[in-house]
Amino acid sequence: QAKITNTTQVVGAAVESLSGSDATAIVYTNTASTSPNTKDVPSLKYLSYRLVLQRDHTRWLVTKMTTITSLDLTPKF
Question: Among 63, 53, 51, which residue's Cα sits nearest to residue 20?
């Protein structure tokens, strides 16, 4: 088994729509993964998601999360 390390950062977010207790948001992330199997050369991915949210009293809950874009910038050797 390989030890894989993932690190994800949210680099941007925006409300796409808001109507009462329903909302849609776009979230942009950067993810880096490393593993001894790849000699610790990081795998770099930039993804964006559309989140469908519903308000539950004072909290917003994600009810659906769909990938919008995926860009893999992992170096190829």
Answer: 53
Distance CA 6, CA 44 (A): 10
| Contact assessment for residue 51 and residue 27, using Cβ atoms and an 8 Å cutoff | yes
Token pair in block for residue 74: 């992992």
* Cα 44 to Cα 5, 13, 68, distances in angstroms: 12, 19, 17
Distant-in-sequence, close-in-space partners of 59: CB < 8 Å, separation ≥ 6: none
**Distance in angstroms between the alpha carbons of the first and the last residue of the chain:** 23
Q: Please state, in angstroms and rounded to a whole number, the distance separating the CA atoms of residues 31 and 43.
A: 8
pLDDT digits over 24-65, tens only? 999 999 999 988 877 778 889 999 999 999 999 999 999 999
